[in-house]
């Protein structure tokens, strides 16, 4: 049995296949020809200093748990001692026992009164600081209940923007080494941060303006997470313009597309 072939349709199919292959080859060549600059960005976090203020519902629930724990708990050694001394005092007044005066020189009640007096003198530090009242975004003593993120002013093209510290990768460096060098170049040695690991936690890319595309079409930024050490000092570079912002403030400060990438790895 002979197979009949429609030659015009076969010719069209071959032509379409050739054009598709040619398009893919052109696209692959264009993609290969594109060069991107590699950057390492650093997310520096100042973790909360104080516990977060409880919401009314949270405070009510905590009060209920504390009361339940109190009702079901055993008496402490102090409470047992206090009860024992109370019974001894009653027996002493009734003349049924004779105790050495040294034995009751400092009773449990005396200790409790001293503790209460010391507690009454204690004044907790304010949660709202002077930096909060002045809205000093350069200070680490603000928004103590929240995590703050470091932004530094950097020039991209002809404009300056506040971004996470980022620097271009150099030959022979790992991306983490680039991130560490970048942070040191921006902030100096006084600011000490601990990096979480060798792998980036986020990614962002952008294209340069057409007139600036001399060697590369754009930049690819790989972000590394770090946390500010407790004994770290303020930034020593007096010429650097920087801000410590909360997550809500970051959303207002950063460009929308940039913030969408950064927000993916914010806690």
Task: Write a concise synopsis of the structure shown.
The chain has 267 residues and is of the alpha+beta class. 40% of the residues lie in helices and 19% in strands.
Q: What layout of secondary structure does this protein have?
A:
Blueprint: H1 7-33, E1 36-46, H2 56-72, H3 77-93, H4 108-121, H5 130-134, E2 148-156, E3 159-163, E4 166-168, H6 175-187, E5 193-195, E6 202-207, E7 218-228, E8 242-245, H7 247-253, H8 256-263
Parallel strand pairs: 1-7
Antiparallel strand pairs: 1-2, 1-4, 2-3, 2-8, 5-7, 6-7
Can you describe what's shown?
With 267 residues, this protein is an alpha+beta fold. The chain has 2 domains: 36-51 and 129-263, Nucleoside Triphosphate Pyrophosphohydrolase (Alpha-Beta Complex), CATH 3.90.79.10; 56-105, no CATH class. Helices cover 40% and strands 19% of the residues. The protein has 8 helices and 8 strands. The chain has helices at residues 7-33, 56-72, 77-93, 108-121, 130-134, 175-187, 247-253, 256-263, and strands at 36-46, 148-156, 159-163, 166-168, 193-195, 202-207, 218-228, 242-245. Strands 1, 2, 3, 4, 5, 6, 7 and 8 form an 8-stranded mixed beta sheet that branches. A hairpin with a 2-residue loop joins strand 2 and strand 3. The radius of gyration is 34 Å and the shape is elongated. 15% of the residues are buried. Residues 36-132 form the Large ribosomal subunit protein mL46 N-terminal domain. Belongs to the mitochondrion-specific ribosomal protein mL46 family. It is found in: Mitochondrion. GO terms for molecular function: structural constituent of ribosome. Pfam families: MRP-L46.
């Amino acid at each position: 049995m002979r197979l009949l072939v429609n030659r015009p349709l076969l010719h069209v199919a071959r032509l379409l296949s050739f054009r598709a292959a040619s398009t893919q080859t052109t696209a692959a060549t264009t993609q290969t020809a594109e060069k991107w600059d590699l950057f390492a960005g650093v997310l520096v976090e100042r973790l909360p200093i104080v516990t977060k203020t409880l919401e009314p519902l949270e405070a009510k629930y905590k009060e209920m748990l504390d009361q339940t724990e109190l009702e079901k708990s055993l008496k402490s050694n102090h409470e047992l001692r206090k009860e024992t001394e109370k019974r001894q005092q009653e027996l002493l007044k009734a003349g049924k026992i004779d105790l050495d005066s040294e034995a009751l020189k400092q009773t449990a009640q005396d200790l409790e009164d001293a503790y209460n007096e010391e507690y009454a003198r204690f004044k907790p530090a304010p949660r709202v600081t002077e930096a909060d009242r002045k809205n000093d975004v350069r200070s680490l003593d603000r928004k103590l209940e929240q995590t703050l993120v470091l932004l530094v002013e950097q020039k991209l093209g002809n404009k300056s923007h506040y971004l996470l510290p980022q620097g271009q990768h150099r030959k022979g460096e790992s991306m983490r080494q680039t991130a560490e060098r970048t942070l040191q170049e921006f902030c100096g040695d006084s600011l000490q941060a601990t990096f979480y690991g060798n792998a980036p936690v986020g990614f962002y890319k952008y294209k340069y303006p057409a007139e600036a595309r001399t060697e590369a079409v754009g930049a690819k930024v790989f972000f590394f997470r770090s946390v500010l050490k407790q004994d770290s000092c303020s930034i020593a570079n007096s010429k650097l313009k920087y801000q410590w912002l909360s997550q809500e403030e970051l959303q207002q400060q950063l460009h929308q597309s940039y913030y969408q990438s950064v927000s993916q790895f914010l806690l």
